[in-house]
Design brief:
Shape: globular
Number of strands: 0
Number of helices: 7
Structural class: mainly alpha
Helix content: over 70%
Distance between the termini: 47 Å
Radius of gyration: 19 Å
Largest sheet: none
Length: 215
């Protein structure tokens, strides 16, 4: 390989890593407080047997569950990415982030508003398509709808009860999807009643200010 071709390949790789890092910056604030807890919910729910059709007994081999973990993380992160791009591209959010979180992609001009819009239009259908392959397409579509309600329809700026209702619904969907992927089931009805109750209990215990979890 000639030196010119090597430089071209390195340049392309640099562009790819730079893009990945930019996307990571969109979700950096929420990854450890949102993606990991949702993933742990699905994993430990499957291991405990609460989500299993056979109550109290996990029917998921540990190795199979380990193989599914990247898929659970991928589902949570990609859907969170849609929310974060949609949220952070709002004019008021850009101004606020310029003061409070100046390292984010839009305040630092790592990406333009129009480019963020293009990525949102690209990532949303791609995420839903992949989710369909994971048998959680309905959940992903619901999350895109909730994202639209929260950001574009101003649900996040409405009465706190509306704001918290949207986020509570999103939590329910994220946790349900995480448990479904971990269990390898296709429908919510295949999650045991104790597993469904566990989802509701977890939501109730997230605290009064659910909105504070996503900023």
């Amino acid at each position: 390989m000639s030196q010119t071709k090597e430089l071209t390949v390195l340049s392309k790789l640099d562009e790819i890593f730079d893009l990945i890092y930019t996307l990571w910056l969109f979700t950096k604030s929420d990854f450890f407080t949102f993606v990991l807890p949702n993933t742990m919910f699905g994993v430990f729910g499957a291991l405990s047997g609460l989500g299993s059709p056979t109550r109290g007994k996990s029917h998921v081999p540990v190795m199979e569950l380990l193989i599914r973990i990247p898929g659970i993380i991928g589902f949570n992160w990609s859907n969170l990415l849609i929310f974060d791009i949609a949220n952070q591209r709002l004019p008021a959010a850009v101004v606020e982030d310029s003061v409070n979180k100046p390292w984010r992609p839009l305040p630092t001009r790592r990406i333009t508003m129009s480019a963020a819009r293009v990525w949102l239009l690209t990532i949303a259908p791609t995420t839903v398509t992949i989710a369909n392959l994971q048998k959680v397409g309905f959940e992903s579509t619901t999350l895109v709808t909730l994202t639209w309600m929260y950001n574009d329809l101003g649900g996040g700026d409405s009465d706190y009860r509306v704001r918290n209702a949207i986020i509570a619904a999103a939590f329910a969907v994220y946790n349900t999807a995480s448990l479904k992927i971990a269990l390898g089931v296709e429908t919510v009805s295949m999650i045991s009643v104790p597993g469904q109750r566990w989802i509701l209990v977890t939501l109730r215990e997230t605290g009064e200010d659910l909105g504070g979890l996503l900023h």
